[in-house]
């Protein structure tokens, strides 16, 4: 995210994983499975718009 606290990854297995990377740790905090195709790209929003994560997939 904007502050470097969370890291989001995307995969061809149709999933998005969000990790807490604060304090030099890597802890999985969420796994999202809403797409029906490979997820190609992710982008965190600017903090002005809240804590939003946009995803791009073959299906949408």
UniProtKB/TrEMBL annotation:
SUPFAM superfamilies (alphabetical): WD40 repeat-like (SSF50978)
GO CC, one annotated term: lysosome
Family label: Belongs to the WD repeat SEC13 family.
Record keywords: Lysosome, mRNA transport, Nuclear pore complex, Nucleus, Protein transport, Repeat, Translocation, Transport, WD repeat
GO biological process, one term: COPII-coated vesicle budding
Gene source species: Rotaria magnacalcarata
Major place of residence: other
Molecular-function GO term, any one: structural molecule activity
Gene3D superfamilies for the chain: YVTN repeat-like/Quinoprotein amine dehydrogenase
Pfam families named among the record's database cross-references: WD40
Database matches in InterPro entries: Sec13/Seh1_fam, WD40/YVTN_repeat-like_dom_sf, WD40_repeat_dom_sf, WD40_rpt
PANTHER family: NUCLEAR PORE COMPLEX PROTEIN SEC13 / SEH1 FAMILY MEMBER, PROTEIN SEC13 HOMOLOG
The name this protein goes by in its record: Protein SEC13 homolog
Compartments it resides in: Lysosome; Nucleus, Nuclear pore complex
């Amino acid at each position: 995210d904007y502050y470097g606290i969370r890291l989001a990854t995307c995969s061809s297995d149709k999933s998005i994983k969000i990790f807490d990377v604060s304090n030099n740790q890597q802890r999985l905090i969420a796994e999202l499975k809403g797409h029906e195709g490979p997820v190609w790209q992710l982008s965190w929003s600017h903090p002005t718009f809240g804590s939003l994560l946009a995803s791009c997939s073959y299906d949408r």
